[in-house]
Amino acid sequence: MKTFRKTMTCLLSTFALFLCFSSAGYTKVDGDTILLGAAVSLTGKYSTNGKHTKNGYDLAVKLINDRGGVKVKGKKYKLAIKYYDDESNSSRAKELAERLIKQDNIKFLLGPYSSGLTKAMAPIIDAAGIPMVEANGASRSLFTKGYKYLFAVLSAANQYLESAIDLAAEKAKESGKKPSQVKVALAFEQDPFSLDVRLGVVEAAKRHGMKIVVDGKLPKALNDMSAILAKVKALRPDVLVVSGHSKGAMTAIKQIQEMKVDIPLLAMTHCDAAKINKKLGGGGEYTLCAAQWHKSLSYKDSYFGNGMDYAKRFEKVYKYDPPYQSAESSAALLVWKSAFERSNSFDTKKLRDALSKTNMQTFYGNIRFGKTGQNIAKPMVLFQVQNGKNAVVAPTEWASSKLIWPAPKWSERK
């Protein structure tokens, strides 16, 4: 009887182990491989950026593995990623989050492309207690829900143009003025993204004691901001901040040029995407444009080196210049490697705690998570259009070019 009980115990233990390691053929750790899961847009409207995201993940996995992998409890492990195509669809992304966790038994996740798809997955992973490091969801609302297992390496939407206000404060001090003397004008589309951007700008202005003299709402069609610009011309603020996607950027530059509105510092979202100089004959010169990353920044790490090193490696493999979506996706893998090694564990709670204590520099930028999982250490990059090219001017400590400030008056331009 005793032999029978021992045999049954052994069989049951073996069966339990089989269930643990055979769910859909994938597990959290299989032999010497740590398997991460990701739902990425390989088809649908986000497929181009989904491809950039996947390429960034894959490049980092290969480099980490080539450099010896990840060391946990004295053993070295390789990284691998189980991919599914979310088809650029929020419902599908939600289904895949559940599949990765419940069927594939994967305990470590990477984010999809876009805020919308990340929002669909976030409640699932948080309820299951499965950590996700995401690189392509910037919406502020992701960080106001109290999620404990979501960590974002990129700057959130409310951070997009905070750097412009900080830069204005810095320049005021250099010229002998107090930051509180700086006057700010706003022109914002009333969509969720732009309102998140506005919130960050307003908070930054308040922090410096600056006065907002114009707080304009762009019309829904984004085809006319002359009424706002008339106020700007009359009140002569030191800074004008605009967020209205590509069309709003085009409208702003076109009408500022037509109305000859002199603005010492003009900052906006999407102005690089709008190719303002090419389409408007140089009217976008001296404009500041927000971006998540640029290869000329001097951040560096022991894996990729600096941004230029990363760009060379990426281009050699994928035959195109890396967009920021790829760079931030690669950075997410560096964060996961660090968390595994600092926690010295595969326990999801211990990994969550390790992720929350992340404080590191990567080629992409500094990464430190606040209580909400938002990266609070990496400011947005600001390009300034100089001679028709994008020159990185902020954050100043990591910039490759100097800001031209104040922008020349229209009467002084050729």
Structure description:
The chain has 414 residues and is an alpha/beta fold. The protein has two domains: 204 residues, Rossmann fold (3-Layer(aba) Sandwich); 166 residues, Rossmann fold (3-Layer(aba) Sandwich). Helix content is 41%, strand content 20%. The protein contains twelve helices and 18 strands. Strands 1, 2, 3, 4, 5, 6 and 7 form a seven-stranded mixed sheet that branches. It has a seven-stranded mixed sheet with strand order 9-8-10-11-12-17-18, with helices on both faces. It has a two-stranded antiparallel sheet with strand order 13-14. The chain is elongated and about 70 Å long. The chain starts with a helix and ends in a 20-residue tail after the last strand.
